[in-house]
Amino acid sequence: MKSTAKKTSASGTPAKATAKKTSASSAPAKATARKPTPATPTPAKKSAPAKKAAPAAVTPAKATSPKAASAKATPAKAASATATPAKATPTKITPAKPPRNESHTALVRRARRINRELGEVYPYAHPELDFENPFQLVVATVLSAQTTDLRVNQTTPALFGKYPTPEDLAAANPEEVEEILRPTGFFRAKTKSVIGLSKALRDDFGGEVPGRLEDLVKLPGVGRKTAFVVLGNAFGRPGITVDTHFQRLVRRWQWTDQTEPDKIEAAIGGLFPKSEWTMLSHHVIFHGRRICHARKPACGACPIAPLCPAYGEGETDPEKAQKLLKYEKGGFPGQRLNPPQSYLDAGGIPAPPLGAPAPGALVPGASAPGAPVPASAGPAPGSPAREAG
Questions:
Q1: Res. 360 pLDDT band, cuts 50 70 90
Q2: Rounded distance between C-alpha atoms, residue 85 and residue 96, angstroms
């Protein structure tokens, strides 16, 4: 009796020890043979808690595995969680949206970082009006109102070819000038302005464009924006050009909430060193024309999306956003017939003369020299649809 008792306890011990094994030892095998009914359920009941209690790490896996619905739902959520950031990566970075109580120091740092990023994207940024001297630049800038720089560049060769100096343009027949300027729109008002400023240059400044802001703004048709374009690009004197693109972007980036050009100029001028004003203007205007459009910004193709508080106002899908890019970013010719060499070195394409087809842009599937034209290429530069943005 004592020996059998020992065997029973001995058999109970291996039952727990061999719970992980499928086959028992020979001793328990005899015990199960003698008592088939109790032997079978007893290890089963004892082994069940042993499996649940011993491998704690495995229990959740096995516990969830029988529940197919919950097991599949969990990976599904995990998959969607991983898929969502892939598409909305900029959205997760968007919380960089400045708080309402953003300090001036934080605003300065954020604004300057955006400008640095734009400088890397557009290292070749430049004034997009063709000019050879200050007189040509001031006239071209006046003509650029309510039209594109491209259209002005396509028009001024005929104008300056016939009237190369202020004296020549001051003595011109207005009707002949109007006919030349007709493609730029508002040609009567523009004719009056360019002839008037030419007369002022001839009579008040000896036929030379003045290099001071207070003198430039006295010329007919010349405001602060035009004056700063001339000062910054013809005389190398820093100035902020607050055009429609500049106004739109600085408000989107929450650099200022001002709406009047002179107040915007003052607010932005306080965020940057004076030496950076001219190139800052080029960076912002370049970005506004190519990516951050007025009606439908290409947010999904924007290089500064993680820094933009307005991310999501436009198309966020990368493929769809890519089709919205303009000029060299979209593989199309730029706005200047005679762009700087740095622009050409970066893959930029010169604009065609007035009436000439854009190289490669009018043929579906064709490629413009130096850059691919997307399959969804729009109208050629210079057409009304092309100028709308």
A1: low
A2: 16
Q: Please give the full DSSP string across 49-87, using - where no structure is assigned.
A: HHHHHS-TTHHHHHHHSS-HHHHHHHHHHHHHHHHHHHH
Distance (Å, whole) CA 227 – CA 332: 30
**Residue closest to 357 by CA, chosen among 380, 337, 335:** 380
Q: Is residue 14's pLDDT more than 80?
A: no
Q: Between vectors from CA 300 to CA 76 and to CA 311, what angle results, nearest 5°?
A: 95
CA distances from 100 to 97, 107, 335 (A): 9, 11, 38
**How many residues does the structure list for the chain?**
389
Fill in the amino acid letter for 252. Answer: R
Please determine, for residue 19, whether its predicted confidence score (pLDDT) is greater than 50.
no
> Rounded to an integer, what distance in angstroms lies between the CA atom of residue 234 and that of residue 10?
102
In whole angstroms, how large is the CA radius of gyration of the chain? 37
pLDDT band at 279, cuts 50/70/90? Answer: very high
Which pLDDT band, with edges at 50, 70 and 90, does 355 fall under?
confident
Q: Three-state SS for 265?
A: helix
pTM of the model: 0.69
Q: Return the half-sphere exposure (C-beta side, CA atoms, 13 A cut-off) of residue 221.
A: 24
Query: Under DSSP, is residue 368 helix (H, G, I), strand (E, B) or coil?
Result: strand
Residue by residue, DSSP assigns 70-134 as HHHHHHHHHHHHHHHHHH-HHHHHGGGSPPTT--HHHHHHHHHHHHHHHHHH-TT----S--SSH
Per residue in 45-57, pLDDT tens? 444 444 444 444 4
Residue 86 to residue 75: CA distance in whole angstroms: 17
Which tokens in the block code for residue 193? 């302005």
Mean pLDDT, the chain, as a whole number? 77
Pinpoint the alpha helices (H) of 211-313.
213-216, 224-234, 244-252, 261-269, 277-290
- 243 catalytic residue (yes or no): yes
Residue 325 contacts residue 301 (beta carbons within 8 Å): yes
pLDDT of residue 6: 44
Note whether 207 and 160 are within 8 A (CB).
Answer: no
Q: Mark whether 203 is an active-site residue.
A: no
Per annotation, catalytic residue among 130, 149, 190, 225? 225
Short-list 202, 205, 115, 213, CA closest to 163? 202
